[in-house]
Design goal:
Number of helices: 4
Strand content: under 5%
Length: 95
């Protein structure tokens, strides 16, 4: 189920997320490299406590959701899926 959820998010939203991040970077409103490093750090911290990819994925969503002021949880899932595809999370596409 995790693979299906990530694949759906990536298939439908990857290009939009990538374009939005590029736009925000171009407007100097977001340092995409630092954002990716923060997501990677959250992933590494989660790996120290959890072993299940599903638990790690949902913890990352919840962490991002907390940082966003508890708004747009579905968008947080799309962002985490984006970073899975970019190999910042899991280092591989989930099976």
């Amino acid at each position: 189920m995790l693979n299906a959820q990530i694949t759906f998010n990536v298939t439908h939203y990857y290009e939009s997320v990538n374009a939005a991040l590029d736009r925000l970077s171009g407007e100097n409103r977001l340092n995409v490299t630092k954002f990716a490093m923060n997501v990677r750090r959250m992933f590494e911290d989660a790996c120290e406590r959890l072993s299940s990819q599903s638990e790690i994925y949902h913890l990352l969503i919840d962490s991002l959701f907390d940082k966003c002021g508890h708004k747009h949880k579905e968008a947080c899932a799309v962002i985490v899926s984006y970073f899975v595809q970019r190999c910042e999370v899991f280092n591989e596409i989930t099976e």
